[in-house]
Amino acid sequence: MDFIEELTWRGMIHQMMPGTDEQLKKEMTVAYLGIDPTADSLHIGHLVGVMMLKHFQRAGHKPIALVGGATGMIGDPSMKSQERKLLSEETLRHNQEAIKKQLAKFLDFDSDAPNAAEMVNNYDWMKQFSFLDFIRDVGKHITVNYMMAKDSVKKRLSGESQQGMSFTEFSYQLCQGYDFLHLYKEKGCRLQLGGSDQWGNITTGTELIRRTLGGEAYALTCPLITKADGGKFGKTESGNVWLDPRYTSPYKFYQFWLNVSDADAEKYIKIFTSLTREEIDELVKAQAEDPGLRPLQKRLAKEITTMVHSASDYEMAVEASQILFSNKASETLHKIDEETLLSVMEGVPQYVVPRSAFNGETKLADLLTDLAAVFASKGEMRKLVQGGGVSINKEKIADPYAVATPEMLIAGKYMLVQRGKKNYSLIRTEE
User: Fold this and answer.
1) What are the residue numbers of the active site?
2) 311-322 and 295-308 helices cross at what angle (nearest 10)?
């Protein structure tokens, strides 16, 4: 597989230094990509860079994921309007381990292949550096004029931000440049990958390598991902879409990809999956023939949910998605976890009743009118039940005066009531 060719047809190249393609064709090349460790999970905004590393390894080259433990303590000014909070070493180490587990789903760290992936933390080589050593050995090679010419610096100094820029952040590009120099010397790293906002920082590294060692190093960036409607990619009303299920459930993760627009689906399936050009062309063709079936979104959601979570998480997400639309979902209801159930029922009216109401004595008609006003009256409920229009946990009920039992509770806590085809209510019990 040709890495540049692969990334080009996937729409994943924004800028590339001359000579990059020739270097990759010449030999197995080592490349690194920096990841900000300010959280103990990646979010989908990180995935473009991670997929670049994945394709790089697939093409026979060696990827290095650099966790910015040192630079994470400073904060990159690129695309930021204010400085970020500084983190402790303990927090950074915890975040690094969590991120490596997530990356292991995309990259091969464990084989004895010469191009097995590695993870490094720049804190390991920066923590021993004294300030005097750094400004003497590194700072003297890069002029202030050179640093001031970078877009990330110019934007912060031009008055777009009221905050200005501290010396700490101004020094960021020198620190990142030194990372590249260090990996060039220690790991034979010849290429740095990153988002288009990183171009200035990356080229500072190639310049530092050229000026200190006379070496040749290269840069390649991917475009920042946007949505067709101009909105910000990866953000929802509740914030970032995370890879860790503690922050974004597999169901919500799956739903995010399932609900992207047709135009975005065609773009994202190239960027966020390893499907071949032929497979994607077939899906694009099928989408054009019958957009209502949404084959692009379905396959995109399947591929990426399975890769980030698991096949069983994907299957559960699909089943959970059918709960509100399928009459055969009672079995699924009883096996999904509480978080997924609540995600599916977001926006559905909810009522809280005492758990003691499910004691085998309370009649459903009393429960669903007096304790929870799902129905306006017992008469209304009786008529709907007689017409086959009331279901409890997706199973039709025949008797409005049947009693409520503990077995009716999903996850020992919830009951789903359906009136007609589309009106749902969720009953939640409390002690």
Assistant:
1) 38, 43, 46, 80, 84, 176, 197, 232, 235-236
2) 130
